[in-house]
Amino acid sequence: MKSAQLKLISNICFILGFASILGSIAIWYLTGGTEPGGKEHAERFGIFVGLWAPTFFILSNRFDRYSVRGS
Known about the structure:
The chain is mainly alpha-helical.
């Protein structure tokens, strides 16, 4: 891959990391409903989505390093 492509993928992963954090917060507060156990499910699902953020940030860092190395 070219350096510019790797840099673009790095930027996309970085944005997805922040989107995962915001999505986690939104899921936690906006879902749940009135069913028994709904709030607990919303909390667990929000935490699950929030756990994606470190992965996206690590991928962003790796792709950025590969783009610099390839230059």
